[in-house]
Every structure is written in structure tokens, then in C-alpha cells.
Amino acid sequence: MDTEHLLSQLGGDFIVLPESSGDPVDYLLLNTCGFIGDAKQESIDAILEAVELKKQGAVGKLVVFGCLSQRYSSEMPSLIPEVDAWFGARDYDPLLRWLGVTPDHSKCRRRIPTECGPGTAYLKISEGCDRRCSYCAIPFIRGAHRSVPMEELLEEASNLAALGVKELVLIAQDTTYYGIDLYKRRALAELIQKLSEIPQIEWIRIHYSYPADFPEDVLEQMASNPKVCKYLDIPLQHISDVVLSNMRRHVDGAWTRHLISQLRSRVPGVVLRTTMIVGHPGEGPKEFEELMAFCREAGFERLGAFMYSEEEGTFGAEHFPDDVPEEVKQQRLDLLMQQQADISLAYNKGRVGSELKVMVDSVAPGGKLVCRSQFESPEVDGEIIVSAPEGTDLQGLVGSFVSARITGADLYDLEGELI
Ligand code: SF4
Predict the structure, then answer these.
(1) How far is it, in rounded angstroms, from Cα 149 to Cα 90?
(2) Which of 166, 195, 254, 295 is most buried, judged by most C-beta within 10 A?
(3) Nearest alpha carbon, ligand 1 atom 2
């Protein structure tokens, strides 16, 4: 989405080609991630690949921006001197000026979504984070929490709707914090209500919600507003009081259990996606067993997990020894994900025979529709592969809602047929 905002301001001055075009370019702009070890390595590999392209003459100037260059701004230029310019995660205006473009933020509200199918777009409602989770480098990479004014988001969403977008995926570092800086109150529920009044928008999906002080009115929106997907992405990270306290998450196990039970009872059928960290300082065998038991009981339909990665400059790196051996972290990750595989598979199998409204994202090479229901978020969850009668104009359905009957399921994806 950050890249889309940048691209929207380049329009008119540049012809923008996707990476997949393979054509030679005057400028290659590379957005990087610097959150944890794996992401940093992936970004460095991508930069080195781009350097190779530059050496081969396929790239004129190479520009790197985003979190990695923000975080290592003093080291990176001397390590990879082939890069022509480095910009941080908040340096879009300097980057545009370097390219000879006058920044015009109003164009961001008229961006062309490129990341999902044509019926779906992300809407970034705020930037930065005021939490200080002990393991996380994001607050000092992305800065303090800044909400996007509601009228700007409504304008952006209306423009997206005019382009055919019917599903909005709300994202931020912490969506439930929306409004506190600008309006001195939590305003996510009000934003959702106003977005749902845009007639073409049929689905609103909430990602990256934070469990502490989860707003009651957001729960109410999820329970009563038919346009809000019965789906919530709520990274919990752990359940043990010891580990949650070390993580500085401002919640304990009892509150977390209470919140999950509220969500399950107030929003029947809700699908919960969460993220856990294994091997955090303070997690011994007992704490890990507590995590396993909680995940079994809560029955998260979707769960991702990471091994703790000590990040320099964080509270955790400065105050706790990274004392869980890497092989133990890996074993715990494998155990948690094996357990989750059984839970997710049972959930998917239980859906066979149901009829669902689905969004058509694309057409698969074999001539089937690639879809999602309100219970699958783009890019992170599985797909519903739907077969249609011969002669159906498959391409004409992309970006629309259709009805499908689920006929089969595996761990990640479902199969269905067009009704
Ligand atoms: S809420 Fe998320 S982004 Fe903010 S510090 Fe915690 S983990 Fe990092």
C-alpha cells in the first residue's frame, strides 16, 4: 500500500512497469522490510538481485527505500555502493523530489490498487505505533502512531469503490488504536460505520487488532453490521502471564481468554486469525505447554507463528538474554504448527456442503475461479477454487461476488462449484 501511494504520485511523470514485465527500466524502486531476521535477509537478497540487473544494463538507477534502509541508514550505503539512493520508511517526499516529482499527497486518495484482485483493496488507516512490545522494532522504524483523518479515508474508499472495489481490508500497525492521536478517542467503530455507508462496499475486514482495551464498539460493529466480515486478525503472541509481561503486551492470560470468549459468543461463527511467538525469553517448557493448551482450546481457525528473533535496539534485546536455544525454538514452532494443521483441517472439512458468498479474485490457469469468502483474507489465508459450467465467462466474473457450494477441503484451500 505504501508503494501504491508512492506510485499514485508518480503517475503522469513516469510509466510504471511491474517487476514481472522484465523490460529494461531507467529507475528501479525497491521497497524493503527490516522487521525481523528473515525479512531483512529477503530484502538484502532482492537488493543484490537488483544490483546484478544494474550491472547487466537492465536498470539505470537503483533506488532503495522502506524499513531496512530506515533502520540501517548509516551502514547500508557503504555495504552496497551500487545503489544510487537510499530513503527511509517515512521519506516519500524526499524520494519523489530526488526523482524530480513534486509531492502531491491528494493523489494518494486516488491510488490504483494493485495488490489483491480488482474487487479488493487494502486501506491503511494509520501509520506507526505507540505500543512498546519488547521484541518489536517497528515503533522506532515507523515512528509514533498517526491516524489518517477520517474524511481522507472516506474519500480514498469512495474512489476505490468507484474503481470497482467491493471489499476493504483495514490495516495499520494497530487498527484498534485508530483515532486516539487525532480525535482523542478510539474511532475505529465510527470509521467502520461510515465506510459501510458507501453503497458499493460490501465487505470490511479488520486486520492487526490489538487485544489490550479491545474497543467494545468494534465488537458491536462486528456483531451487528452486516458489512463487517465475521473475521478478525488479532495477533496475541502468547498466553502465559510471564511471557506476556516480558513482552510488555499490557494484557494477561485471563484477559486474553475473556476476550476470545467474548468474540466467540458475541459474533457467532467468527473466524479468528492470530499470531504467536515461540521461544521468547521467559518461555520455559511449562509456558510453552500452556500456549499449546490455549491454542487447542481456543481453536483458532488460522494461526501463524514465528520463532523469537532478538532485534537490536529493542527493550527485549537490552533487558533479556535470548536464552531459548534455536533448536528448541524450532521444535516448539513445529509442534505448534502441527497441532494447528489438525485444527485448521478440521475447520475446513466442516465447511464442506455449505453455500457461501465469495469474491472472485482471478482465474486459475486450469480455467477455474480463484475465490475467497468473508472467512478468508487475501494473501494470508487459503483460497476457494470454484469450477463453473462450461461456457461461463470466467474473466467477466473477476472482481465480483458469486455464490459457491463447497465440495472439498484440504488444510489450506477449499474446492467448490458455482451455484
Ligand atoms: S503493537 Fe505491533 S507494531 Fe506495535 S510494538 Fe507491538 S508488535 Fe510492534
Answers:
(1) 18
(2) 195
(3) 173
